[in-house]
Amino acid sequence: MAQATLTPAQHRRRRLPDLVFQMGLPLALLLVVLFFAWSSPAFLVPSNLESVLVNNFTLLAIVSIAMTLAVASGGIDLSVGTALDFASLLFVSLIAAGQPFGIALLAGLLGGLGAGLFNAFLIVGLGITPFLATLGTLFIGRSVQQLTTGGGIPIYLSKAKVPEAATFLAHGDILGIATPLWVVTILIVLFTVLLRATPFGRRVTAIGVQPAVAWYSGLPVRRDLVLVYLLSALVVAVAGLMLSATVNAYVPSSGNAFLLNAIGATFIGTTLDRRGRPNVPGTVLGVLLLAVVANGLLLIGWNFYWQQVGTGVLIFLVLVASFASRRWRKAG
Amino acid sequence: MPSTDQSASPPALAMHGLIKDFGGVRALDGAEFEARSGEIHGLVGQNGAGKSTLIKVLAGIYRPDEGRIAIDGQPVSDLTPHKVDRLGIQFIHQDRLLVPSFTVGEAVFLGRERTAAGLLARRRMEREARALIAEQFGVELPKGALISELTTAQQQLVQIVRALAQKPRILVFDEPTAALVKREVDRLFAIIERLRGQGITIVYISHYLQEIERLCDRVTVLRNGRHVGTVSPAATPAREIARMMVARDIGELFPKRQVTPGAPALAVRKLARRPHLQEVSFTLRRGEILGVTGLLGSGVKELVRLLFGLDKPDAGQVEIGGQAATLGSPAAAVARGIALVPEDRRGQGVALDASVRDNTTLASLARFARGGLVRRSEEDGETRRLIEELRIRTPGPDTAVRDLSGGNQQKVVIAKWLARRSEVYLLDEPTVGVDIAAKVEIYRLIGELVEQGAAVLLVSSDLDELAGIADRILVLYRGTVVRELPAKDASSDALLAWSTGAMEAA
Question: How many CB pairs under 8 A join A and B?
Answer without folding.
Answer: 108
